[in-house]
Amino acid sequence: MQATVRSFDPVTRSGSVFLDDGTVLEFGAPAFDAGPLRLLRSGQRVRLAMADDEITYITLSTFPLPA
User: 42 to each of 5, 13, 34, 51, 66, how far by Cα in Å?
Assistant: First the structure.
C-alpha cells in the first residue's frame, strides 16, 4: 500500500501518513525502525506494510517491502 507522509518526528521516530483516499494513519517507532530510512519529510511518498490495521513497516515508495 502507498501513502504520503503527513508528519514525522525524528525524536520519537513516529508520525502519520495520508492514504490515497484521505484517511490518516499513525505509525510508531517500531514501524519506522523496521525499515532502512533515517528520516521522512512531509509530502514524501512511502510504501507501507500493514498487519491488523497497524502500520508495521514504512519505506520509500521506490524501495521494496520485505518478503
Answer: 5, 14, 20, 24, 23
Backbone angles phi, psi at 7, to 5 degrees: -155, 155
- Its sign, for the CA torsion 42, 43, 49, 50, is positive
Give tens-digit pLDDT for 6-39.
999 999 999 999 999 999 999 999 999 999 999 9
pTM: 0.91
Beta strands in the chain (DSSP E): 2-9, 14-19, 24-27, 45-51, 54-60
